[in-house]
């Protein structure tokens, strides 16, 4: 019997009067603090079945039985209670354990302790949960972005509904567009965004049967608890599972019987301090085997444990870099936060008073920063708390809140609780709390243990829970408390308060190693994201009104000395990373000045600076308002430069409150007025540079801006911005042609996604008809339409037009192909036409084909993607191919299944067809299509390159292709069939073909499950004396060390093979040792070897060094994403330094290298006469490592031309060394420093060099 059956039977046995007493007692039972069923509901319930149902829904089945026992005992029905107890016990012994586990989960996850520093009350999860926006994401997330400062950009992304496919919790494990069901889901989101609440809601809904019916068991694993445990402890996966289960140990056999029905929810991956990228030989496959916890989790992640189970992992962006190396075929989902509608829903839930909710949401919608912050649930709660306080005090919500004001008002709300004595304790407590916050940021700590709380003197019985969030975690058999701030931004606020407060005697006795404000500002100058918001808060706390408010409400006094320190720092900043040559390029500086809101201070701070340079950023309305405020106080502004910036207009207008919207905050208007107004700065006299890639979205004031820019004599011609989403662009373009005789070629080359319409095309046509220099024109992703193209063609047909390449990708073209056809038949210069993403339709393509068939057509390259044409049109295209004598390259992405491919092949087989390159990627081709393509291969005398990757050819399809490739007349030189669902069964046919074909030089078989047996067969063909293959791609083909002996035999035999890609295969050290035997053979001719992500370690580097010191052919070696480490690379360097080494390119991306090995690399650079390219990206070299490397780079014998240092933890400190190299070392041509922090001063040094 189930719990519900037992409960129903007990209630049915009650007499009528007892039934009434039972309901009365049930209405105020107060079972273990759980809310009671409402009396009204119980009074309306007159039958046993409905009562049992209500109890089950409210309490959960198991708890409902417990409650019934208590009620029966409370109304003196002891025999009935004893009988119910007995049946419950029998049910537990014989019942379905799965249901008992679900009931336990439902009970455990039904409530949670609200992150509410004032009340700390348990609330039901369903009453607080509001759905969050989730989108699919392919790791386009910065690990370094600040989780509060980036919210405005994220809010804009949430508004772009078409940017990413939307997801819901219910659809996370549904099949994708290719029908594949994901086993691993990674939920990514910033702190406080709702990852844990979402994970807990998933557990609750699963337990209630609302979602994921495919899983019998779901287990919630808290990484914070895992990290708290000693890493040396040995445990098994069953130990982790048992810790989740009630009623003692669960039956392993019952739970593990169907591993495909198990779901593990791993919450908070970023909080794990150990590495999960464990080598395969350390992993385990036995669920009962005890190992260190990092091995158990690594085995679960890498699917050596319960390979059929499913995982749902939550993490902050900071954990992504570690996570992605230990997962395969995972699907990423990004939690964006609340949508605009969900913010509104949250406000109504919070206030419960419609009038207050409307006032609050209206105010927030008119404040760009607050509206963006409401994406994050905990910050949304904070804003609601502050606004509730303001409304309860009878204040009108009319003034914009600065970021600091919000946090100060939240702090003041905490001081309202308790007696005067408590408030006195609170002042001391606050000083100590601020000290801990600052010290935590220096140590990069967000969790504080009980011992640390005691050290800082924060173990106050009332105040501790008021200011900090407590998490009670399991650590072995005991429970341990750890503490954190509500959100990282609160820790940053209290850290700022620590540096701003006067007289911190309370913290001096602690002896804590907190560094001074000078060090904080140094970190800020280095763009350390840990301190950006701290310094912004620091400025905000110095605002006079804020200081007085803080003093009045909390008795905390801000030190006036801090303001002097900050002003001095800003004034000398023009000689630091903040301001190079008097030009400020850090937008955060202006936000700091805006926070202080004191005109005299801002004016004094900017008096020695002369300009603004902002690059590659999005300026929200709030940013524009900030800039406007600063510009108004800046009397010495001479230079205003925006490069690669998007200046956006956003409307957060109230859609449900009547009345006109409040536009007083519109930053674009304010910024323009500040720049143009006579009493602030003359825009015409300002050196205003508008970059070619900048996109302005000023609507109402665009004409003023453009006219001013067009008349500006200071505009450098090479920096003119033409990518503007406005019709006035022609006025600027043509005006400058007349006034300054600008060469339009470099300016008009790329106008991709500039929001142009057909209104501009007449003016562009005029430019095309006069320009003698323009060779390329990219108008992709603009809504030109057919009329726009008609206008454009007038200029293109002009005899003076010399355009060679025209890109019209996604330009909403359809019926205008007649104009293009005329153009093709008359324009002798046009060589390339790209029309991807236009729904040309049958009439459009037929017209285009007429142009292609014209004898005067000189087009060489044509690209069409999803042209929306019928089968018969491919006959027209085939006819054009059989006639046109110039077309050499054709790219098609469309559904080409029969009869389309057959019609196309008729043209390809024609003797007059001159096509050399044919790209048919992702065209839904299957094995049935391959017979026609094989006939082309055996007939065509021109076709040299065929790319068919991403099609479902399968082994039968490739066998048919091999028949064409074996034909004596086949001239094909390159075949790409990666991702074509091939297996080892086709490798025999490939081997036979390779031993016969005399033309094929390049074959890419990557990302197919060929396996060791298949490649062993392939090797027979590769070793054949007649094989002429020069490049072979076998990346991600499920290979192991087993096949490496066969590949070594190929290397020692083949006289043609020059390039071999074995990346992303589990070759291991033993496999590479076997390969090295072939590489060292005197007959080996291989020049390029790619071994990225092949599970190699330092143990094999000695063998590689021996290859480098003997091979006379090897020129390029890719060892990226292998755990070589410093010891391994030191061995490798011995081979690189050998006089016989001929290596020119070495890639060591993400090989776990540190500065320790840089001295050895420097010795290589100063010795090697062959090494030209070195990629050290994604290794923690740091400035010290680069300093060591510099010794080799500056050596006269160094021949290096390209150096890759992406993501190497470099700062401005290293730029002095690099600048010296660049200014003196003429050999260095390419330097990649992306994703480091050279900052403005470092960049300036590099540019000057």
From TrEMBL:
- InterPro entries this protein is in? DAPIN, DEATH-like_dom_sf, Leu-rich_rpt, Leu-rich_rpt_Cys-con_subtyp, LRR_dom_sf, NACHT-assoc, NACHT_NTPase, NLRP_HD2
For this protein, the parts annotated as crossing the membrane are none
Q: Name one GO biological process term.
A: innate immune response
Which terms are listed as keywords in the entry?
Answer: Activator, ATP-binding, Cytoplasm, Cytoskeleton, Endoplasmic reticulum, Golgi apparatus, Hydrolase, Immunity, Inflammasome, Inflammatory response, Innate immunity, Isopeptide bond, Lipoprotein, Membrane, Mitochondrion, Nucleotide-binding, Nucleus, Palmitate, Phosphoprotein, Repeat, Secreted, Transcription, Transcription regulation, Ubl conjugation
Q: Name one Pfam family in it.
A: NLRC4_HD2
Subcellular localization(s) per the UniProt record: Cytoplasm, Cytoskeleton, Microtubule organizing center; Endoplasmic reticulum; Golgi apparatus membrane; Inflammasome
Its biological purpose: Independently of inflammasome activation, regulates the differentiation of T helper 2 (Th2) cells and has a role in Th2 cell-dependent asthma and tumor growth. During Th2 differentiation, required for optimal IRF4 binding to IL4 promoter and for IRF4-dependent IL4 transcription. Binds to the consensus DNA sequence 5'-GRRGGNRGAG-3'. May also participate in the transcription of IL5, IL13, GATA3, CCR3, CCR4 and MAF.
| Protein's name according to its UniProt entry | NACHT, LRR and PYD domains-containing protein 3
Q: What organism does this protein naturally occur in?
A: Mycteria americana (Wood stork)
Print the organism lineage: Eukaryota, Metazoa, Chordata, Craniata, Vertebrata
């Amino acid at each position: 019997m189930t719990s519900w059956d037992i409960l129903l039977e007990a209630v049915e046995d009650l007499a009528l009067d007892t039934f009434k007493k039972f309901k009365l007692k049930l209405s105020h039972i107060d079972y273990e603090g759980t809310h009671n069923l409402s009396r009204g509901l119980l009074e309306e319930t007159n039958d046993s079945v409905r009562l049992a149902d209500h109890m089950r829904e409210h309490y959960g089945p198991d708890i409902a039985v417990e409650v019934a026992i208590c009620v029966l005992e409370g109304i003196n029905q002891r025999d009935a209670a004893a009988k119910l107890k007995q049946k419950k016990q029998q049910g537990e012994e014989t019942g379905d354990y799965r249901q008992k586990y679900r009931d336990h989960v439902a009970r455990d996850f039904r409530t949670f302790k609200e992150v509410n520093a004032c009340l700390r009350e348990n609330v039901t999860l369903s009453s607080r949960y509001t759905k969050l926006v989730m989108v699919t994401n392919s790791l386009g997330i910065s690990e370094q972005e600040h989780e509060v400062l980036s919210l405005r950009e994220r809010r804009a992304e949430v508004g772009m509904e078409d940017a990413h496919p939307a997801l819901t919790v219910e659809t996370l494990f549904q099949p994708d567009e290719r029908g594949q069901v994901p086993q691993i889901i990674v939920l990514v989101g910033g702190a406080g965004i709702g990852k844990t609440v979402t994970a807990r809601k998933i557990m609750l809904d699963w337990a209630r049967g609302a979602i994921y019916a495919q899983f019998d068991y779901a287990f919630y694993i808290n990484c914070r608890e895992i990290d708290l445990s000693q890493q040396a402890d040995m445990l098994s996966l069953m130990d982790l599972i048992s810790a989740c289960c009630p009623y003692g140990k669960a039956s392993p056999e019952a739970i593990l019987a169907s591993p495909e029905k198990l779901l593990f929810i791993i919450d908070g991956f970023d909080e794990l301090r150990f590495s999960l990228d464990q080598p395969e030989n350390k992993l385990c496959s036995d669920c009962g085997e005890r190992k260190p916890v990092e091995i158990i989790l690594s085995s679960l992640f890498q699917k050596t444990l319960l390979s059929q189970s499913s995982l749902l992992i939550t993490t902050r962006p900071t954990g992504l870099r570690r996570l992605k190396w230990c997962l395969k075929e995972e699907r990423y989902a990004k939690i964006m936060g609340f949508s605009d509608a969900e913010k509104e829903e949250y406000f109504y839930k919070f206030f419960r008073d419609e009038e207050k909710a409307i006032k609050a949401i209206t105010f927030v919608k008119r404040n760009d920063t607050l509206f963006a912050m409401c994406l994050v649930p905990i910050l949304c709660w904070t804003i609601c708390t502050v606004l509730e306080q303001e409304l309860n005090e009878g204040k009108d919500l009319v003034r914009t809140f600065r970021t600091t004001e919000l946090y100060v008002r939240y702090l003041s709300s905490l001081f309202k609780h308790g007696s005067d004595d408590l408030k006195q304790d609170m002042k001391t407590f606050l000083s100590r709390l601020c000290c801990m916050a600052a010290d935590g940021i220096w140590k990069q700590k967000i969790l504080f243990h009980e011992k640390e709380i005691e050290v800082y003197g924060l173990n106050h019985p009332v105040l501790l829970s008021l200011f900090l969030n407590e998490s009670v975690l399991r650590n072995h058999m005991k429970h341990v408390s750890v503490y954190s701030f509500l959100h990282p931004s609160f820790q940053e606020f209290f850290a700022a308060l620590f540096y701003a407060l006067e007289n911190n005697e309370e913290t001096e006795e602690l002896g804590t190693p907190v560094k001074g404000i000078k060090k904080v500002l140094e970190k800020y100058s280095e763009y350390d994201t840990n301190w950006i918001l701290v310094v912004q808060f620091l400025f905000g706390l110095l605002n006079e009104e804020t200081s007085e408010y803080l003093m009045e409400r909390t008795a905390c006094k801000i030190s006036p000395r801090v303001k002097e320190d900050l002003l001095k720092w800003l004034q000398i900043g023009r000689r630091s990373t903040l301001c190079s040559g008097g030009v400020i390029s850090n937008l955060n500086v202006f936000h700091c000045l805006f926070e202080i809101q004191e005109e005299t201070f801002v004016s004094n701070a900017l008096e020695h600076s002369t300009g603004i340079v902002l690059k590659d950023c999005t300026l929200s309305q709030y940013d524009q308002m900030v800039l406007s405020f600063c510009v108004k106080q800046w009397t010495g502004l001479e230079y205003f430069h925006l490069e690669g910036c998007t200046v956006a207009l956003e409307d957060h207008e109230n859609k449900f409150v009547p009345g006109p919207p409040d536009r007083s905050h519109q930053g674009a208007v304010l910024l323009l007025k500040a720049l143009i107004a006579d009493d602030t700065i003359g825009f015409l006299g300002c050196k205003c540079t508008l970059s070619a890639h900048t996109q302005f979205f000023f609507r109402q004031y665009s004409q003023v801006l453009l006219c001013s820019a067009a008349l500006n004599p200071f505009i450098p011609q090479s920096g003119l911005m033409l990518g503007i989403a406005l019709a006035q662009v022609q006025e600027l373009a043509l005006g400058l042609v007349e006034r300054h005789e600008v060469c339009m070629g470099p300016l008009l080359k790329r106008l991709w996604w500039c929001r142009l319409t057909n209104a501009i095309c007449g003016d562009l046509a005029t430019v095309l008809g006069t320009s003698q220099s323009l060779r390329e024109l990219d108008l992709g992703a603009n809504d030109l339409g057919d009329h726009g193209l008609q206008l454009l063609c007038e200029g293109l047909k002009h005899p003076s037009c010399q355009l060679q390449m025209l890109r019209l990708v996604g330009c909403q073209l359809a019926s205008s192909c007649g104009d293009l056809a005329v153009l093709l038949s008359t324009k002798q210069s046009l060589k390339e036409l790209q029309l991807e993403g236009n729904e040309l339709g049958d009439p459009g393509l037929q017209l285009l084909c007429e142009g292609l068939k014209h004898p005067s057509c000189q087009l060489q390259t044509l690209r069409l993607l999803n042209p929306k044409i019928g089968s018969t049109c491919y006959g027209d295209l085939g006819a054009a191919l059989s006639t046109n004598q110039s077309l050499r390259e054709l790219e098609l992405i469309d559904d080409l299944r029969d009869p389309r491919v057959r019609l196309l092949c008729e043209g390809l087989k024609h003797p007059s067809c001159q096509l050399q390159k044919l790209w048919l990627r992702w065209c839904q081709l299957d094995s049935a299509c391959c017979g026609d393509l094989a006939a082309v291969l055996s007939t065509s005398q021109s076709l040299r390159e065929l790319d068919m990757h991403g099609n479902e050819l399968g082994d039968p399809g490739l066998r048919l292709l091999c028949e064409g490739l074996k034909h004596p007349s086949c001239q094909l030189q390159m075949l790409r069939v990666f991702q074509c669902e091939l297996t080892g069964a086709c490798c025999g046919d490939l081997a036979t073909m390779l031993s016969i074909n005399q033309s094929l030089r390049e074959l890419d078989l990557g990302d197919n499950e060929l396996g060791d047996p298949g490649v062993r067969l392939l090797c027979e063909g590769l070793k054949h004396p007649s094989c002429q293959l020069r490049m072979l791609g076998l990346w991600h083909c499920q290979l192991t060390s087993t096949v490496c002996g066969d590949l070594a035999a190929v290397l020692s035999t083949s006289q043609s093979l020059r390039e071999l890609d074995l990346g992303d295969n589990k070759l291991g050290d033993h496999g590479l040792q076997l390969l090295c035997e072939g590489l060292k053979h005197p007959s080996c001719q291989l020049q390029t070897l790619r071994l990225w992500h092949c599970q190699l370690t330092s143990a094999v580097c000695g063998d590689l060094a021996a290859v480098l010191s003997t091979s006379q052919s090897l020129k390029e070696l890719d060892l990226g994403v292998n755990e070589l480490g410093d010891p391994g690379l030191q061995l490798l360097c011995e081979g690189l330094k050998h006089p016989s080494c001929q290596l020119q390119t070495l890639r060591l991306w993400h090989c776990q290298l540190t500065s320790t090995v840089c001295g050895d690399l420097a010795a290589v650079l100063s010795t090697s006469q062959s090494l030209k390219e070195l990629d050290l990206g994604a290794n923690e070299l740091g400035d010290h490592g680069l300093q060591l490397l510099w010794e080799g780079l500056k050596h006269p014998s160094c021949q290096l031309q390209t150096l890759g240092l992406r993501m190497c933890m470099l700062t401005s400190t290293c730029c002095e060394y690099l600048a010296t190299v660049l200014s003196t070392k003429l050999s260095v041509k390419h330097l990649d420093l992306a994703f480091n922090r050279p900052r403005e001063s470092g960049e300036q040094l590099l540019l000057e060099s």
